[in-house]
Design goal:
The complex is a heterodimer of chains A (about 350) and B (about 260). By secondary structure, chain A is of the alpha+beta class. Chain A has seven helices and ten strands. In chain A, α2 runs antiparallel to α3. Chain A starts with about 35 loop residues before the first helix and ends in a 15-residue tail after the last strand. In chain B, strands 1-2 form a two-stranded antiparallel sheet. In chain B, a hairpin with a 5-residue loop joins β1 and β2.
Chain lengths: ~350, ~260
Amino acid sequence: MSKTNSPDAEHDYSGGLAVIAADKIQDPGLEPHRVRMTDKSKKHEKAASRQVTAMFVASAIGSAFAIYAYFAFPLTDDLGSVRNNTVLLGLGITLGLLGIGIGAVHWAKTLMPDNEVSEPRHQTRGSEEVRARAIEIIKLADSESGFSRRKLIRRSLYGALALFPLPAIMLFGDLGPNPGDTLRHTMWKKGTRLAKDPTGTPIKASDVTIGSVFHVIPEGLADLEHHKLEEKAKAAVLLVRLDPADIKESEERKTWSYDGIVAYSKICTHVGCPVALYEQHTHHLLCPCHQSTFDVTDACKVVFGPASRPLPQLPITVDAEGYLIAQSDFTEPVGPSFWER
Amino acid sequence: MAFMKKSNGSRRSPFAAVLVIAAGLALTGGGYAATTAAVAETAAPAAADAAQLDTGHKLFLANCASCHGKNAEGTNNAPSLIGVGAASVEFQVDSGRMPAQASGPQIQKKYPQFTADQIDAMAAWVATLAPGPAIPTDAQLEANGNATRGGELFRINCAMCHNAVGAGGALTEGKYAPSLVGVPADHIYEAMLTGPQNMPVFNDANLTPADKKDIITYLKYVESNPSAGGYELGNLGPVAEGLFIWIFGLGLIVAITIWLGAKSN
């Protein structure tokens, strides 16, 4: 666009870091000026002027309406009032701002002068005099402050600057401590009763009929004072009763179920969503986040989706009163993978 | 008329015979048309169990036995109905899922094929086969429980499939959890109790009748109260909302940008 970019001016100055290619495609120059309707006819000009005014008036009405809506649709205990209040207040403010914006742009486009103007770019490099003057100022500052001469001051300043960021690095330590082995253990231990979520009522084996699904927490979790959610996030279990004939059990897991009742961790081994969409007839457990599907009859192996490991099984049995209890904690870490796993 | 004679022979009390005739007349008089309702209404309350059971058995043989077996013992095409209880029959038939229209990943809802009395008769007959869940009473279905508690129970036990406000959701291989909006309270209760199709069972030890009442209260509360956050877009969450804002929100921004850059003519 500008004259200084043309090839013959190339050797007159340095372009700094900018790469200046010889202009192989010749500068086509400006497009021919097109005369607007608003310049040609008084009628169009008047119409445009009315439209701009109308936008500004609409904006004023919108703002006034927002104030009206705030008082006319107050927030009450009724949830529906929140909706009316937000929607109407928002519409008023939107109209208030949009009216000003559209009006201003329309005004500039239709009524203000639209002659094309070109302005040459400045050179990046300063003139010789300006550069010499800058060096002079730096030298003067150095001699007046004594920065080069006073070595002790200079070195102590370097030392101070080097130490300054260290406290910030120390504060990063507060992001820890490392989880230790907390990711490997849950609240379950030998003899913990299986209880209903959220009440914490213990579950009897006889309560779990075929086709039932119980959402289970360890007994005592509901009464925890601290870290309740952390414990729940690790210990949540899904309890299902199947026809014992349907279950494929490995030798070592034969004793982990009780009369067709099996308990599996509810935390997906992919990224830790609660896997709880149980299909009674297919015996598939589906994770709602990424559609990982686990086969409850076959040790919750992954039959579809991105999960890489089966859901960990909680070994269960019954106590003397007929309540379901855990035989131990999970035998492997629950939930998604982590570095040390 | 033929089956009426047959059943007549199997009854000893003349009183019962009169009632059988009354019930038979009620049934045949209306045929399979919806107009039976008015006629049956007069006969059914007075009908003894025997007559109702007989009607139920007949209806079962005519409409269900081809898949479920003559004695409801089940076949390769359909499960046994022994022990499913009256609640299961009312849910399946009154919601129109049974008799099934077509096989597929999931039996679809349709307009119910039988009147309330016919359904009661079938339910009564199936209930005699073996003990099973009974039809809930009106008091159990009233939506006057604790909606807050119901909401918590719903989120723990139901929301993963049916969505946090009961809008429904997808399962595997073409199956889905249906929307619960507009589903009558008795169907919700019976579905929890019996676990139709792939839905698990929530027996009274898992969700007590009071829990079930609270869940119904919550669903009816959600249904009758507008969403505080503005338009629901089907309550489907990020998919529907994302699609809307990508198409309409971004579309509007693109349109304004083009208008800003265009010269006025």
